[in-house]
Amino acid sequence: MSVNVEQPAAQPLRAAAFAPGLAFRRFGALIALALLIALNLAITPHFASEQTLSVNLTQICTIVIVGVGMTLVIATGGIDLSVGALMAIAGALAPAFFTGKLFHGGNLYVNIAFSIVVPVAVAGLFGLFNGWLVSRFRIQPIIATLILFIAGRGIAQVWTNGDLQVFKAPQFQAIAIGRVLGVPFQVWIMLVIVVVAAWVLRRTVFGRQVLAIGGNPAAARLAGVPVSRVTCLVYVISGLCSGVAGLIVIAMNSAADANLIGMGMELDAIAAVAVGGTLLSGGKATIFGTLLGAMIIQLVRYTLLANGVPDAAALVAKAVLIVLAVWLQQQELT
Amino acid sequence: MAIEPLLSMRNIDKRFGNVAALIDASLEVRPAEVMGLIGQNGAGKSTMIKVLNGFCSRDSGEIAFAGRPWAASSPQVAQRGGVSTIFQEINLIPFRSVTENIYLGRELRNRIGFLDWRGMYKGARDLLAEFGVTVDVQAPLGEFSTAIQQMVAIARAVSFDAKLVVMDESTSSLDEQEVAVLFQTIQRLKSQGVAVVFVSHKLDELYKVCDRITIMRDGRTVAVAAMRDMTKLQLVATMLGRDLAEVRKQGATAFSAAATAAGEELLSLDNISVGRRVSGATLAVRRGEIVGLAGLLGSGRTETARAIFGADPHKGEIRYQGKPVEFSEPREAIAAGIGFCSEDRKHEGIIPGMSVRENLTLALLPALGRSGIVDETRQRAVVDRFIKDIGIKCASPEQRIRELSGGNQQKVMLARWLCMDPRLIIFDEPTRGIDVGAKAEIQKLIRRLANEGLGVLMVSSEIEEIVEGADRTFVLREGKTVAHLDRKDTTEGALLNAMAHGATA
What we know:
The structure holds 2 protein chains of 2 kinds.
Chain A: H1 10-17, H2 20-43, H3 50-75, H4 83-93, H5 95-98, H6 108-137, H7 141-159, E1 165-166, H8 170-177, E2 179-180, E3 183-184, H9 185-203, H10 205-215, H11 217-222, H12 227-253, E4 255-256, H13 265-276, H14 287-306, H15 311-333
Antiparallel strand pairs in A: 1-4, 2-3
Helix pairs in contact in A: 2-14, 3-9, 3-10, 3-12, 3-13, 3-14, 4-6, 4-7, 4-12, 6-7, 6-12, 8-9, 8-12, 9-10, 10-12, 13-14, 13-15, 14-15
Chain B: E1 7-16, E2 19-29, E3 34-38, H1 45-52, E4 60-65, E5 68-69, H2 75-81, E6 83-86, H3 98-103, H4 117-130, H5 146-158, E7 164-168, H6 176-191, E8 195-199, H7 203-209, E9 212-217, E10 220-226, H8 232-240, E11 265-274, E12 278-286, E13 290-294, H9 301-308, E14 315-320, E15 323-325, H10 330-335, E16 338-341, H11 345-348, H12 356-360, H13 365-368, E17 369-370, E18 373-374, H14 376-389, H15 406-418, E19 424-428, H16 436-451, E20 455-459, H17 463-469, E21 472-477, E22 480-486, H18 492-501
Parallel strand pairs in B: 3-8, 3-9, 6-7, 7-8, 13-20, 13-21, 16-19, 19-20
Antiparallel strand pairs in B: 1-2, 1-4, 4-5, 9-10, 11-12, 11-14, 14-15, 17-18, 21-22
């Protein structure tokens, strides 16, 4: 071993960066995922197959897509409980377009375009409503989004008369089950959303302002950050993400059931965000972390199920993961 | 002097970590006396009160109350022992009724253990009647004016058979009439033999209601005197630690004189009012000068500064660069070329988890964007330039700002505005909580900025900083501009005089 005597000043910094504790805090989610995969390779039969990858990725697609919007909302110090309900609204709206119920005899692909754009835009508008309540009236986010958490699913049910809409529309359903390069199309959608959002958070003025608001709202305002506008926008983005996720769910199921689409999604998304390492009080966020968080939760569940542990026990494992993630965050704060 | 004191606190020491909050402090109150307690921010008044009522423990010292050693472990215990404290923010429950608030924690019960509402309503009515207050005791407390709530708090305090009531800035949220009612109440308490410790920053109030005054500074008790034996000027001088006999220039700060004459007028305020704290603030800033804004704690300096910056709403005309302006958000003031360094760096300045680089360019961020994408090359160039230019000591621009010293954090805040190329910077206590070396550097920088043609408005509670740093000074007293001093007239004597009496020297 040679000792570097030329740059003594650089030593403490480098030493700190490679201290095991710090590394685990920073890359905790990645390390956990790697360990899980290694464990599965060792004990789970037929783990290293395309089938396994495909199943697990499609399981997390909607959670990650919603989780991206949730990450941005949480980065400002807020929370969005309405995501599941907004998924239901988007999912309930879409069939009316591609089944031709609204525009008889129109071009199928035009109808499909409508069935994607309109429901997503509507979900975005409901997100705007959330943002408006939070930024204009300073209502606590948990209460403001609780309104649509309750009312949103009701709106979706009223729209469909509470009926289950069953359909067969392979051209539309391609958004979920079509494959490109052997990978389900919904996985591509998820990856694009993750990459774009991570880039926005890291590189754009908007992204940095989101983190500034979460880090210290009073200071951000005094530094000229348009707090209301940025806050409003993250809820719109969360709404748009929910809309996309809602469409994927109905495309996978060949059916739209306003009672079930996105049920419990808000908590799954928040869990993925928390396990991924985003600070729940705002100011520090990682989009890739949310992706990793969702993967870890899914993989733990898969590991247990594949090895014969009942699903109920898997729920306990999920809770333990969340406790661990929060504990790690606490370590960082002190 | 032969009277046995009701409360005697002697040689009290208290440290919070490395910071000494109280050093050999003392407080003595006689029965049925109103004792004023005054001091600047950080003088130790609040700590003293907290030690008395058991909110904090003391490190050393003796406390005797009513002839016996006193050791309260919590405000509740203190209350039962005869010392009731009414805090600055009324600590009652607005949604519960007046009666519930008065009986909170010691509710009356009837024989079978249920709450005896009838008894409590009657008790509450009788108690308030003693203070000349007749209200519906079943109505929620929050429906009444602050003064009534204050009365309820006092009534509650007294109903614990208090022998000593501590009022911590009880008048700060009251209007004139309400203050008058409060003073009557204090007189009534006195006549019932109850002693009062009255903490306030308003000199007129102290003179109206107090028998004696205790002055604290830097954690020590520096003077105790009968109120009528002490002039306002003496009081202010003692509180700020100035020696009246030799008010002279000492050269304790790093300011030098202005190098250039001031230019045209940049900013002017004409009789503006902000909330309850400010009414009648008038001041003006010209290009290339440092204008001091002086006044005691609570005189409305910060409120005025925030109003200029659009952080709080105001009434009255503010003119900027010759035109009336109405900034409704700080963003608009920033766009017009104004910067503001808050006195509360931790809560209103830094984003603790972000790097020096991001903190420094937070205000500049929109201008660093090309179609919304941050130009990181330019950002780094700006950050490197300012780190070098104003000597920010950090391991790298990527270091988190919360790891920096107070002085270096303040330099980053300064750089946040300098990189905007502003025309006017407002500093609220620019050197608070900063070590001596960094303090001098920041003072030099402020002078350099003014010499380069910027207008500077500097709020400061440090007399030297104003006397030596400001080219002109406006003095606020209870929310009103009471003096406008040119550099040659800005002496300690004149400042203290204006703060104390409101008269122009």
